[in-house]
């Protein structure tokens, strides 16, 4: 009887690690998306022109993408063993992304109508949300292939 719980405990422990890594995937995406969606709010907050803030945020997003790729690679190598379940992680992070974004919009609502992003940002956001799991699948594949 104890052996059954030991086996299930191993699977649950691994699944918990997978959810934690997926939450980190989601957190990095939400940081990048919120930076992209809140350019006007950030420019008003730090009192810089929108063009300058747009360039700075673009550079910051590029740095975040490069650093997050390295961080995801190291997380997969260190915490997740070579398993086919690793490929489920990028898809587990999608509901977590929606949870993080909805909680961010509830914590920081937009009171100023001038802070609303332009409509094309919605298309960019949707395209990036569709492509993000494929980017993560590539990182997972490279990190498991390296072993």
Give me the secondary-structure topology:
Elements (H helix, E strand, L loop, with lengths): L1 H36 L1 H8 L3 H30 L9 H19 L11 H27 L2
Helix pairs in contact: 1-3, 1-4, 1-5, 2-3, 3-5, 4-5
Task: Give an overview in words.
This protein has helices at 2-37, 39-46, 50-79, 89-107, 119-145. The chain is mainly alpha-helical. The protein has one domain (2-145).
Features:
single chain; 147 residues; mainly alpha
Give the structure's gist in a few sentences.
The chain is an all-alpha fold.
**How many strand units?**
0
Distance between the termini: 35 Å
In which range does the helix fraction lie? over 70%
Beta-strand residue fraction: under 5%
Instruction: Provide the succession of SSEs.
Output: HHHHH
Low-confidence stretches: none
Overall mean confidence score, pLDDT: 86
Please give the domain count: 1
Largest beta-sheet characterization: none
> Which structural class should the secondary elements be placed in?
mainly alpha
**Helix count?**
5
The gyration radius over C-alpha positions equals: 18 Å
Global morphology: elongated
